[in-house]
Write the structure tokens for this entry.
Amino acid sequence: MKLIKAITVIAVITICFAVAFAAGDAAAGRKLFNDPAFAGSPNSKSCNTCHPDGRRLEMAGTKDWSKNRGAKSLEEMVNVCITSPLQGQALAPDSQEMQDIVAYIKSLGK
């Protein structure tokens, strides 16, 4: 009985940590949003260059992406901006940087 309780406690703690680390951090995403070196960009532009203070991104977290430059998700649209205006390297959709920038963009709609 004690062994089952101990395993259950360990499992719950592990799941809590996994969820906490899997979620994006909007504060970290805001720093990336304003960083001209984000995603290996070789120029002096940042996301904030085209979207000062997040303007025009207020609905990005709920938008239907099928009609926007062929992107199927917010993550794909972020990579369109990274590879085009910023001339950087696309991020993996499940990377921490992608999760952070998406968390920040979604926070703009609140």
